[in-house]
User: Fold this.
Amino acid sequence: MAQLLISTSTGPADPTRASIAFHIAANGSGTAGVTCAIALAGDATEIAKPEVAAGVRGVGIPPLADLLEKCRAAAIPIHV
Assistant:
């Protein structure tokens, strides 16, 4: 089985880029049967705070709070 680690360092200052890792995990690899995890580094660690994640809304993708919930439901690990 394929495995994927999605790494991101973009924080809430760029909400679209900050959400992409979660979008790929929740709606891409997770639904394709690829085992994946997300690694947050640098500014991206800020989005681990629930109050910050609640306000992150990228363009053309679901809100980060929705993506995080989908990742939780799929048991996708998030490493900070």
About this structure: The two ends are 25 Å apart (CA to CA). The beta strands are 3-8, 35-40, 78-79. The first strand starts at residue 3 and ends at 8.
